[in-house]
Amino acid sequence: MKKIAKDQVIYAMSSENKPVLKAHSGDRICFETRDCYGDEITPQDPDRRPLQINPATGPVFVEEAQVGDTLKVTIEKITLQDQALVGSYPKSGMMADWIERRMIHFLPVQENQLEFQKDLVVKTAPMIGVIGVAPEAESVACRKPGVHGGNMDCRKIREGSVVYLPVFHPGALLALGDVHAAMGDGEVMGSGAEIAANVTVQIEVIKETCGEPWVVDRDRVYVITSAETMEEALKQGCYKMNQRLQKQLGLSPEMAGMLMSLEGNSEICQVVNPFVTLRFGMPLVRFLSKEGKRS
Amino acid sequence: MKKIAKDQVIYAMSSENKPVLKAHSGDRICFETRDCYGDEITPQDPDRRPLQINPATGPVFVEEAQVGDTLKVTIEKITLQDQALVGSYPKSGMMADWIERRMIHFLPVQENQLEFQKDLVVKTAPMIGVIGVAPEAESVACRKPGVHGGNMDCRKIREGSVVYLPVFHPGALLALGDVHAAMGDGEVMGSGAEIAANVTVQIEVIKETCGEPWVVDRDRVYVITSAETMEEALKQGCYKMNQRLQKQLGLSPEMAGMLMSLEGNSEICQVVNPFVTLRFGMPLVRFLSKEGKRS
After folding, report:
1. Can you give the pLDDT at residue B294?
2. Residue-wise DSSP of A98-161
3. Do A264 and B188 lie within an 8 Å CB cutoff?
4. Closest CA to A129 of A105, A146, A145, A106
5. Which of B26, B47, B75, B123 has its CA 20 to 30 A from that of B85?
6. Which top-level group of life is the source organism from (chains A, B) (predicted)?
7. Which residue is closest to B265 within chain A, CA to CA?
8. Cα angle at B227 between A277 and A243, to 5 degrees?
9. Can you name the CATH fold of A215-287?
């Protein structure tokens, strides 16, 4: 299996980034990732303020990936390091109006648990915060989300999930990082359990077009959208899902919309990055063929 | 068991509503409810436009309920009638920009399934759309949500859940209705599977104050907040949850906020009523005593 070491990081996704690995459709790759602070904040130096945040390991050049294709990334394994950290930042996140104190709180990881404090543990639920390809136009900082992926902070991007990303440049230039050992939907204080990790994925090139990130887990198909407001992100997600259901099930826009109203879930990924990210999820069964295969 | 027939409905929650039943803390009551159109839209008359929507059956005067108390409502049973309907409305909901056709689609209910169309069934997941008490100040239409409850369209208000509502007037004046046989989070097209139902609840008066609706299900404790925007509703919910966690666990605002960021979920109830409604949920275990009891 190919491996990329954690000294190979980028802080912006761009078509001008030099690939650090060349791979083929079907390959499995292990990404060594740093935490969102580049592993710079430690118990010995908790007050350190990194100049840049959200490094992503990569990018990988995928030989078969052409403009207009879709890159399918199957998340096979996320192996966490043994310590995470979570932060409280003045004037940021959903509690900005009344949180004034900066704190960095270290969380030892043991047996699938994070020790938040004595007698209070949080279960680990590893997920990938940043995953994306080179964006269509100018470079985008890894701390931002967009149609190319990026800092979506989506809890559904976890072991066993499949992420679909649009290819805007030859080779796609996949990079990922910013793993969280745990994070609630919304990441309301602006921080998950930030941690370094090893992430093993399988990549495949699909000769179809997807216009934005989609995620499939055991139960649902999600379209992921980012915008300035939650309302706008949700509207975009509803539009994309409606279009897809029309095509998949042969429904009118009205009938597809009613089905979405009945069994589609509007869900929040994060509300603390430069754009907010929502996902709209429909049951996976709506996208399976009669033989139960994913179509 | 006491029962209220479906001809006893109100279209606004108000301290001036005449009680249709007097009950005691501990009583069980069955509410016969109409669908959100007052049962007026039928396959024989699908084009009918009711003058008022979202009737709630009641109100009940609870003898022990005093201003400042909390009314605890345990949802024991929701029994659906045999036909639901779902609507597509021009220029409404998250798909307003491109849905132009009004449609009313009838959904026969059979064996816990809704027949959406041939070969496409939706599982039933009954929930209560409207549940509330008389608001503190002027009357509020049942189609609106607020701190008194009302049209919150929260999918977690279902069999087995417990709803906590603030008491603003002697007797509380509980009313409920607008049951959905199924609905996705967000109710993105403005309609669930609207249906008449019988709802059995147990009511209890708690001599403590809750400032807004809270819901407890098997896994989580949710605070429910409504506002003009999703961001504002979520901010309010985060504030309330933060306050409660500080008290419950003896945490600072920062530590409570970090715990929320790690394991609190920002969730969407509905985005289609005059105010949108969100819920913020934390694991129930955070609110249990060491003996496992709810505190």
Report:
1. 59
2. T----EEEEEEEETTEEEEETTEEEE---EEEEEE---SSS-EETTSEETTEEE---TT-STT-
3. yes
4. A145
5. B75
6. Bacteria
7. A185
8. 40
9. Endonuclease I-creI (3.10.28)
- Kindly report, residue by residue over A156-185, the tens digit of the pLDDT: 999 999 999 999 999 999 999 999 999 999
What fold, for B2-86+124-210?
Jelly Rolls (2.60.120)
Nearest by Cα to B174 from B31, B25, B59, B5: B59
ipTM over cut 0.85: yes
Outline which parts of chain A fall under CATH 3.10.28.20.
215-287
Max CA distance (Å), chain B:
60
Helix extents (H) in chain B: 230-249, 253-263
User: In the beta sheet, which residues pair with residue A220?
Assistant: A283
What is the C-alpha separation between B159 and B221, in angstroms, rounded? 15
Q: Are the beta carbons of A191 and B254 separated by less than 8 Å?
A: no
**pLDDT tens digit string along B207-217?**
999 999 999 99
User: CA of B286 to nearest chain A CA: how many angstroms apart?
Assistant: 9
User: What percent of chain B shows pLDDT beyond 90?
Assistant: 93
State yes or no: pLDDT of A291 exceeds 80: no
Please judge whether B231 and A271 are an interchain contact, meaning their C-beta atoms are less than 8 angstroms apart: yes
> Strand B28-33 and strand B197-206: pairing?
antiparallel
Say how far apart CA A197 and CA A11 lie, in whole Å.
17
| Tokens, residue A29 | 């790759």
Q: Say yes or no to pLDDT of B137 above 90.
A: yes
DSSP character string of B103-155: EEEEEEEETTEEEEETTEEEE---EEEEEE---SSS-EETTSEETTEEE---T
CATH superfamily, domain at A2-82+125-210: Acetamidase/Formamidase-like domains (2.60.120.580)
Nearest-Cα residue of chain B relative to residue A188? B261
